[in-house]
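anyone else get weird line breaks when pasting these?? whatever heres mine. first is seq + tokens for prot A
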Amino acid sequence: MNFLGLWARGMTSRPNRRAMDSIAITNTPDSGRTGTGSVQYQLRQYAESTLGKASLHEAVLLPEGESLDEWVACHVVDFYNHINMLFMSVSHHCTDETCPRMCAGDGFNYFWRDGVTYREPTAMPANKYVGLLIKWIDAQLDDTSVFPVDMGQPFPHAFRAEVAPQILKRMLRVYAHLYWHHYPQICQVGLATMLNTSFTHFTLFVTKYKLVSDTELQAVKDVIKILA
């Protein structure tokens, strides 16, 4: 079922300032990127508290005096948590039979390439694509040379030019697949507001810092207009 058709028949879940309260990932103390004493944890707490009391447009703004690399890294982690949770909530509906290819409608097909196991763009079922994507992101988040956890440790030179955009571009494809092919199931499990708010936050963030191209956003341009 086309997601626009479902909206037209009376979808009422739209982003609001308090909706992100249900999205916030609870962090447990540790010594890594999400530890309560880390800069990353403090930025995440700042972002989540802002979402609870200000508009999403204000929530994407870099806190004064903070590193933009850290701010982007913080959001990469949070958006990763969001898409992971959202996809898992409907994953039993996304099978080799129901979604034999990773796509967003008929006009946007996505192919997997990681340069190691898959050296060339490879078509595959959506559930396999998302599974490989999650593992691929996990590996990068665990690599402290890519996502440093120690104070003063620099990010890679190309972090905002290449690393983060590549991760976020692929995350966008999961959002697009969910909207085009699983929005009714998202509504059935009560996560429409979570998806809409998370996606609005995502698009505001990646457009603010020019992390995803307009070409990639074409697959969800109608969703962006509706949620604006």
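and prot B, same format (seq, then tokens)
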Amino acid sequence: MGLHSPCHGSMYTTYNAHHGSRDAQLEDTCLLFRTCLFDRASPVIHVDTLKERRRVEGDEIKLREITVSGPVAHNILYENMLEEDVCTECSYCRMVTRDLLIECRVCGKAAHRNCLGKRGYLDTENQRVAAYEAEKGSDVGWSCPDCEDVSQLLSPEQVQIVIERFDRYDINQDNKFNLDDFRRCQSDPGASKRTTETSFTDYDRDGDGYVSWEEFRYIEALKLLQGVSQASLVRSLRPREIERMKNIFRGQDSFKAGVITEQASQMVVMNWRKSLGFGVVPNVMKSNRDTDFSLISWDRFVREHAFHIICARPNTTGIRPYVTSFGLC
């Protein structure tokens, strides 16, 4: 299944690469201690030796993963570094100015908040809050109308399917539907009242009792994208969103080998969530003695989380994040 992605440009203002580095150093100190305990022939190991051992282990892991999953996609190479490219032109009025421009955290396209409002892109409270916070310099950032519309990654045939599904619920043809409309059109007559209400709430992101065309479109698009291969999803990622995740990953990779432990990878996800304003989830760090110190490469990590990165594209400053509905609570 192919992905359809609009063309964007520009670069990403990097997230703090040292975020969580203190935890990474502590973890590597623990790993060194564990290594010393079990290597009786070398009770004391120099840190450079441990670094070299991590590099060799990392190369072996990457080679095995290439054998299984194919070559690493060029757009996610660990060695790639983005240079900051500041956009000084509004993509709508084309005025070259540094005054009150907000940049898209996904593609780097810039815009004036007034220009967005004139074109109907600030009609909802969520859109207005996201643009306002970005204008004030929020670390969370803002997604432009093109990037936050994840339905643009669908094929024309898939978009038509989503339109037909919405029309079935939109009985009054007012571009929204409520719980009663949703109940009347349920395909499963045996669904319990609680199940139906839960499903409706999943669509109603702002909790106003109605599901708009935008809310419905984004959820349905993400459901369809769940069925797309990891390789296709990775190819659709934009440089800035890759760099945000990569810089947090690097903060846990104190050996700069492109691999970290499974436990550290959970910390990367947690810090990535915080960087996007999703908050910290209780018990997100799940400990497992059998896997905590096994290694995961950057390539495998980003492939496994490519879908979640796309889920994070829509602005959700004033609504529930979409990642909470798709396995990253």
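btw re prot B: Residues 29 and 47 are 9 Å apart (CA to CA). Confidence is low (pLDDT under 50) at residues 5-19, 35-42.
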